[in-house]
Amino acid sequence: AGSYKTAAGNQECSQCPDNSISDPGSDKKEHCLCMRGFAGMSSETCLECDKGTYCMDLGSLLCLSCPDFSESPAGSDEKWDCQCLEGYQGPDGAACSACGVGKYKDTKGSEDCTNCKVNAITEAEASSSPDKCVCDIGYTSDDADGCILFYCDAGTYKSAPGQNECTVCPDGTNSTPGSTSLEDCICPEYS
């Protein structure tokens, strides 16, 4: 295997070109085929499949692309080498879906996305780090167990997730403790 002999006799077999292989008893150079993980128009030009592609068959002309949001190492020879990127989940070699809001995945592979700590969310899908988890509206971090309920004082509100401070209501308006929107700042009633 990996060689050929064009004539009968005692001469040595010729080696197939780089990255190609042949069946035992091959009698032509054309019988040399690109190995799995390599592709080309002939055995003379067998090129390694790029990162993010794979080639499962001997003698392939082209490497195939991994499914969206997955990647394989260069020279991959199996579809299963394609693994979901960070922020995406799914079985190896298959379609990958984005981690939903409130979840993240910080490794490549088929592992499931991980939930953020209690009362924390991500502000977008496909988050690839636990650092993307921020406290939800009305909560702040206690640096131990995640996010705890945090009420803004009267006259202030917190309308966005994260560690941001409470915002003071506009002049002449007031809000109740724990307000989460500018609309909670209202003019006081006069009697």
Describe the structure.
The protein has 191 residues and is mostly beta strands. Helix content is 0%, strand content 23%. It contains no helices and 20 strands. It has a two-stranded antiparallel sheet. Strand 5 and strand 6 form a beta hairpin. It is rod-shaped, with a radius of gyration of 30 Å.
The low-confidence runs, each spanning 5 or more residues with pLDDT under 50, are none
Overall body shape: rod-shaped
- The percentage helix is under 10%
- Largest β-sheet summary: 2 strands, antiparallel
- The count of DSSP E runs of length 2 or more, i.e. the number of strands, is 20
Would you tell me the structural class of the helices and strands? mainly beta
Radius of gyration equals 30 Å
- Total helical segments: 0
Distance between the termini: 99 Å
Provide a brief overview of the structure.
Helices cover 0% and strands 23% of the residues. By secondary structure, the chain is an all-beta fold.
